[in-house]
Amino acid sequence: MLRSVLLGVFCILLSSNCYASDRDIEMSINQNEPVPGDQIRFQCTAEGDWELPIISARLVIYDVLGNRVGSRRNMAIDGNTASYNFTIPNNSITGNWSFKCVIADREERERSTAQFTVFEPGIIEPPDDPGTAHAAINEYNGPATCIGCHQQAAEAMLDSLHMKWSGPTPNLTNTNGEELGKAVGGINTFCTYAVSSKGACFSCHVRSDGNAPHPPEVTDVDCLMCHNDTYQRKFVSDPNNTETVVNVLGEEKTYVFGKVDSQGNYTTVPDFDKMPEGTTMVDVARSVHLPTTKSCLRCHAKAGGGDWTKRGDMGLNSAEAKLSEDVHLAKDGANMGCVNCHAAPDHKIGGRGIDLRQTEAESPTCMACHTSAPHSDARLNRHAQGQVSCQVCHIREYAKGGATEMSRDFREPVWNQAFCSGQGGFVGEEIKESFVKPEYVWFDGTSYVYNVGEVITPDERGIYPMAKANGNAFDGNSLIVPIKRHSSIMPLHESGKIIPPAIMWMFMTGNFDMAIQKGMEEQGMSGNYSFVEADAEMLITHGVEPKENAPSCTSCHDNTGTTPDGTRMLPFAALGYHQIPEKVLSCTLCHEQESMYWESMHTEHRNENISCNSCHTPEPTGFIKAKNVLCSSCHESKSWRSEGHKKHIEKGLKCVSCHTFS
User: Fold this and answer.
1) Which of 30, 39, 252, 551 is surrounded by the fewest CB atoms within 10 Å?
2) Cβ atoms within 10 A of the Cβ of 514, count?
3) CB 339 within 8 A of CB 20
4) Nearest CA-CA partner of 575 in 482, 451, 437
């Protein structure tokens, strides 16, 4: 007989960034036992010491798998309560869902998350948590145990970046959108060519068969890698799959690799030595959960071969970040997790940096939780609405929780006992730093990332860019963003192509030349090569600091309007701010010469909607058309008059509409 459990106004407060202890959000739904197809009403009520009325409220709804299934930027507001009606899609997965409210008054913004339950039609009393849902499991037979109930989720996972190590590349300008990634064309300035690592780089891969060459199958989906933080695994060693080498120290050493079948499949098994004593796989399967910050950091924190090594803005201890290190992750801050921003519809994760090839879902933005005018100061809002990304002011330093690698040189072998599954290996000489000030570049959301087989050329610095942001000053699309610049020494073939080293030979022997030569054999290359300096630009977007750490006006500007690079926070000249024609500097391009304090002058022109690139631009080199037809190409019979510049600029016309530039 079905039992009925009264849900009523059900609210479990999971997290809140209540900086003021007497501010809270009461969250509820109006439906006792909602099922797919029902319309429910969400209510979020500001309680405590708020500056009423509230001025904005936003709602995001997540299903059982953490997929964002609904959102409302502008909830209906009545006094201190915001509400929104939502219809649960008919094909929804039932179980524990969650919703997040973000409420703002004139002084502060708070957020909270609560759970509610979507019932199956005719079935009341679903389990309170995923652990209860899986309590009936009495044996674990690998991924098949999960897939028995979660076939749809497993099939969705097959087309994800985390399974394929590749995906579509619409934001890579040196491709035609084809699928690329770490497993397809991927090479970087850290461990170089991952697919040549003989499994060393596969330990984080959710595929239970490592990175086998065939397309993944549902039984290859190791769900526990993301859905149980206790779970640990290892590759089965094969005493018949070995390599004996003499390393640069003159020592003979035999390395044992993982068991690989004729199709290239590795075999993974639970590693009980790394799990709490007495743990069984039935225990693990019964205690699965939605991904946590710790789940994501299992792999992402140690990218590049060590904790904090690669990205520079996250490490293992980010799961317990201090407020000064990351206000979003800190327990006494917003107490958020990775999936709060990186939603995963159909197991496709949103978020792409400069050095990543693939884009498989919409990237998270600050505006998902914050308004376009987040400050009480109009001047600060002008920055937020202009060319300065939020990260510039709110991430003043990176590597705040640990040292990050700034450069690597494989020509200088350094022994690391943790490499090669604890057998030890040689890595390059690493230079690591903590509390690093970012560099700054223009980024329009697209980038160039080198792929194996392409010809590469040096830039104006004589350095070969392996990853570089695209963007131009004042083009209307680009923002200034903070980056980590990672430098390396790469082998360049005489054909102009970067040679992908067979990197395991470097790990085993410490001989980078041997790794390069083995790599040339694998790629069918012959001839000469040389070593060149290379680097990669990497977006810094985690590690937001408390707002008290944000820069003041004088942190970036002096009183001249042309702050010299190196004297303040931003390199204005390098970013193009000081590239101004003489007629603009003398204020005679549009009107007679005038004198005004630079900030007042800047504000007046911005208030008149004059575009940035009307002033911040190089000298024009000519016209896009002959002068006698230039005006008539847009107007009927017109001739040039001296006030023409002013009229065109005031209408927001960009200089490139008429002029050419070198």
Assistant:
1) 252
2) 17
3) no
4) 482
Question: Nearest 5°: phi and psi at 600?
Answer: -65, -45
User: With contact defined as beta carbons under 8 Å apart, do 423 and 247 qualify?
Assistant: no
For residue 420, the tally of other CB atoms under 10 A from its CB is 21
Q: How many CA atoms lie within 13 A of 325 on its CB side?
A: 21
Tokens of 87: 């219809």
Question: Among the listed ranges 29-43, 154-168, 316-330, 535-549, which one has the minimum average pLDDT value?
Answer: 29-43
Cβ–Cβ < 8 Å for 341, 102: no
Contact 563, 556 (CB under 8 A): yes
Sorted by sequence, the CB contacts under 8 Å of residue 385 that are 6+ apart come out as 372, 373
Can you tell me the mean pLDDT for 357-383? 88
Residue 428, classified by CB atoms within 10 Å of its CB into exposed (0-12), middle (13-18) or buried (19+), is buried
Q: Is 220 helix (H, G, I), strand (E, B) or coil?
A: helix
Superfamily of domain 15-126: Macroglobulin (MG2) domain (2.60.40.1930)
CA distance linking residue 495 with residue 80, whole number of Å: 67
Structure token pair of residue 483: 């980056």
Closest by Cα among 104, 106, 72, 105 to 87? 72
In terms of Cα–Cα distance, which of 296, 371, 399 is closest to 338? 296
Label residue 477 exposed, middle or buried (CB < 10 Å: 0-12, 13-18, 19+): middle
- Please name which of 369, 384, 376, 375 lies closest in space to residue 328, comparing C-alpha atoms: 369
186/485 Cα distance (integer angstroms): 18
**Tokens linked to 143:** 């991924």
Question: Residue 600's CB: how many other CB atoms inside 10 A?
Answer: 9
- For residue 392, the surrounding DSSP H or E stretch is helix 390-394
Q: Which of 63, 74, 129, 126 is nearest to 98 (CA)?
A: 63
Q: Is 180 helix (H, G, I), strand (E, B) or coil?
A: strand
Q: What pLDDT shows up at residue 298?
A: 94
Three-point CA angle 546, 547, 549, nearest 5°: 75
Provide φ and ψ at 649, rounded to 5°.
-70, -40
Does the global pTM surpass 0.90? Answer: no
pLDDT band at 214 (very low <50, low <70, confident <90, very high): confident
**By the 8 A CB rule, do 292 and 329 touch?**
no
Rounded Cα–Cα distance for residues 392 and 626 (Å): 42
**Cα–Cα distance for residue pair 165/163, rounded to 1 Å:** 6
Q: Which are the contacts of 397, defined by CB distance < 8 A and separation ≥ 6?
A: 435, 436, 437, 438, 543, 545
Residue type, 188: N
Instruction: Give CATH 2.60.40.1930 domain extents, the chain.
Output: 15-126
User: How many other β-carbons are positioned within 10 Å of the β-carbon of residue 405?
Assistant: 25
Q: Answer whether 192's CB lies under 8 Å from 256's CB.
A: no
Joined tokens for residue 456: 């590469």
**What is the DSSP code string of 189-229?**
SSS--GGGSTTTT-TT-SBTT-S-SSPP-GGGB-THHHH-S
d(CA 333, CA 546): 9
Helix (H, G, I), strand (E, B) or coil at 170: coil
Separation CA 571–CA 592 (nearest Å): 31
Q: Which residue has the tokens 């000030």?
A: 437
**pLDDT interval class at 604 (50, 70, 90):** confident
Mean of the pLDDT values across residues 393-414?
A: 98
State the chain's maximal CA–CA distance in angstroms. 89
Give residue 639's pLDDT.
66
Q: What residues contact residue 356 under an 8 Å CB cut-off, 6+ apart?
A: 449
**pLDDT band at residue 615 under the 50/70/90 scheme:** confident
DSSP structural state of residue 25: E
DSSP strand pairing (529-539 vs 464-469): parallel
